[in-house]
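Final report, Chapter 2: Outcomes

The project's central promise was a pipeline that accepts a single protein chain and returns its three-dimensional structure in a standardized token representation, suitable for archiving and comparison. That pipeline is now operational. To close this chapter, we reproduce one record exactly as it appears in the project archive, with the input sequence first and the structure output second.
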Amino acid sequence: MRSHRRSRLLAPFLLVPLTAGCFASGGGDDSGSGGKDGDGDGARLRVALAFPPAENLSPYGADATLLSRLGVTEGLTALDANGSAAPALAESWRRDGEKTWEFTLRDATFQDGGEVTPAAVAESLGHATDAEPAPAALAGVTLGAEASGDRVVRITTAEPDPVLPLRLSSPSLAILSKNAYGKSDRVDPVGHATGPFELTEVNGATSASLDRFDDYWGGRAQASGIDARFIADGTARANALRTGELDIAEAVPVAQAASLDKKTRRDTATTRTTSLLLNASSGTFEDAGLRAAARGALDTSVFAEDVYEGYADPAAGVYGPAVTWAEGKRTAPVGRAAAKKAGGATVHLATYDNRPELPEVAQVVKQQLEKAGFTVKLTVREYSRLEGDALDGKFDAFVLARNTLLDTGDPVAVLASDYTCDGGFNIAQLCDKDVDRAVAGAEKIADTAKRQDAAMAAEARILGSDAVVPLVHQRIITGVADSVQGVILDPYERTLVGTGTRR
């Protein structure tokens, strides 16, 4: 297994989700007028996020989507409602041969006053490519960027990359000014990004303050700023919304949904799948027969209706119904081993409580595995205290909620990062030559339909290994106060507030 692994916010082309509109950070509803504060500006937004910063707000790991959801950072491109690359800091692009793309920049300004120039963009991408471990979006990719004239950035990849514009939409490839990069390895996004809101203060893993960036290229945001709180407890988030302390609360627990007024809860089909990952390289589940036994022991039909109370869909595979092309192309798993008897084999199962349904999911998994003859120990912690051990393979099994299109928008990318020998987020510790071969073949295909077919063929190999057992495809509940308009309900979970978000 590869020694360097990179965080992913659990938590990510060629997809048509169920929502309309563009999900770039500047999006939103611009109609009507918001509330006013004493300075005559739009009122500040009070927002609660489920995950506290885990890496000092580095854009290269789990914190990248915190920055994009709060409207702080942007990349050269964004994802639109059809899952295609849309203009962001780049207003257009073209391919020049198999390995080179040219991106033409729009007129934009960094929050510290500098212009977004081709040289600045090339430098920012250079820092991302040099990061160790590499950002998720660059897994297996080598690229170089250079300025080409006053407005063009020329990006060359070592191998042909047919989905580069999608890749560059990743929150982990946000463009920052040169002042974000000091002599240390730490990247500082405070005041150095390009989005409609500028970080002004970060209070550890507790809260952050943001002010409107008045020179934002996409227009002046209607809210004057954001007061963000990081609240891991889902019940506390819901209670704060209900009592008027918050305007927006992400990831409301399904158990709390009924306690909110119907007008304040919004559920969105997402590309997030909750799965049971089985450690295929060490411990009990190194044995493929015992992995098959665990998979056979699980009755996945109970999760959508019982645990998620209807705010989810029964699991079909790595990709759920929000990936609308997947079901028609799905094939049966390939290469499954015959199941063995559990015989009391010990399983250390783990999950995290930032998403409050997951401990309940894990309890059901534990009960079903014990009924099949396994001996199960369950560990539940806050995510930032659990991720390192999970990535290092210290658990036999792990319940994970993973947005399959978060990192790049490309369906093949999540397979490469999560299920190949060199994958940077391979909690399942899977290293299978047939899987690697299938994923590598899919990565080379440019044609949309053929790339989808190849992704599904690779999915069949991965499911056949029994290193991952999909349990449920999630719908995310966002709590939104009656006075708030323009919240961005993004199936990719990359954005939440934009220029039109206001109260």
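Archive annotation: The radius of gyration is 22 Å.
This record, like all others produced under the grant, will remain available to the consortium after the project formally closes.
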